[in-house]
Amino acid sequence: MGDYFFSLVLTVHVLVGIGVIGLVLVQHGKGADMGAAFGGGASGSLFGASGSANFLSRTTAVLATVFFLTSLGLSFLASNKPAAPSSVMEGAQVAPAVESQPVAPVDTSPAQSIPK
Questions:
Q1: Close Cβ partners of 116 (under 8 Å, ≥ 6 residues apart)
Q2: pTM above 0.90, yes or no
Q3: Collapsing DSSP states into helix, strand and coil, what is residue 16?
Q4: pLDDT tens, N- to C-terminus, the chain (116 residues)
Q5: Which terminal CB of the chain, N or C, has fewer other CB atoms within 10 Å?
Q6: What is the rounded end-to-end Cα distance, in angstroms, of the chain?
Q7: Can you tell me whether residue 33 is helix, strand or coil?
Q8: How far apart are CA 12 and CA 5, in angstroms?
Q9: In whole angstroms, how far apart are CA 24 and each of 15, 27, 64?
Q10: How far apart are CA 47 and CA 41, in angstroms?
């Protein structure tokens, strides 16, 4: 569940970041109005002359806030992952010891002497 949620927050974070970049590139700078006054370009936009700056700046502020919150969320999720074991044997489970039955001693003495 943790990996799924991390992937979801990361996807939202990347999409919001791309949205912020797009909105910043679409907005006009402060010097753009002066150039438009001398015929340098069309000052009108899709949202009207004054509404575009207001709508775009508010949308950028909302997306920047979401970007900030997803950044905090990602750092929280990344720091709370369980630590990986430092060795291979740390994660291994030890099987309980099996008691063995005593084995009858084997006679290893030489067999009866063979007559010469």
A1: none
A2: no
A3: helix
A4: 678 899 999 999 999 999 999 999 998 777 666 655 565 555 555 555 555 568 888 999 999 999 999 999 999 988 887 767 677 776 677 777 677 777 777 767 766 666 66
A5: C
A6: 82
A7: helix
A8: 11
A9: 14, 5, 11
A10: 16
